[in-house]
Amino acid sequence: MYKLAVIAFVVGCAFAQQQTAFNQFDSQVKAQESQAKAARDAARAKMSSAAKDADDKLYAISSNPSLTIEQKGQQIQALYQSLPANVRQELESIEGPQGQGR
Predict the structure, then answer these.
(1) Please, which residues have CB within 8 angstroms of residue 101's CB and are 6 or more apart in sequence?
(2) pLDDT digit string (tens) for 77-92?
(3) 51 and 30 share a domain?
(4) How far apart are CA 37 and CA 88, in angstroms?
(5) Both 26 and 58 in a single domain?
(6) pTM of the model
(7) Closest Cα to residue 53, out of 86, 10, 7?
(8) Each residue of 55-74: pLDDT tens digit?
């Protein structure tokens, strides 16, 4: 009986440590997501309506969980290349070439 109590205690401690580590990680991820959203919102405030429309489409592709990384890359590149030069230049001035600032 004593061995079972010790095992339960050790397992409980390990679980608590893992839970604490996960909670810290989860908090960091949420903080980074919040910072990224704030940066995107600030950048969008400076965009023309055409650039905002393009940004919406690029964001929809990049955040689509049903697409593979390769599919996202292909679709983003195709959309980006189809944009008028002035819209591409505007996005690049805010985000860097092909959204590298994202």
Answers:
(1) 43, 94, 95
(2) 999 999 999 999 999 8
(3) no
(4) 21
(5) no
(6) 0.63
(7) 86
(8) 999 999 999 999 999 999 99
Domain that holds residue 13: 1-45
CB 22 within 8 A of CB 36: no
Average confidence (pLDDT) over 14-22 = 83
Per residue, what are the HEC states of 62-97? HCCCCCCHHHHHHHHHHHHHHCCHHHHHHHHHHHCH
Task: Give me the number of domains the chain comprises.
Answer: 2
Write the CA distances from 17 to 21, 41, 99, integer angstroms: 6, 36, 38
Residue 64 amino acid letter: N
Single-letter residue type at 48: S
Which residue is associated with the tokens 């990384």? 69
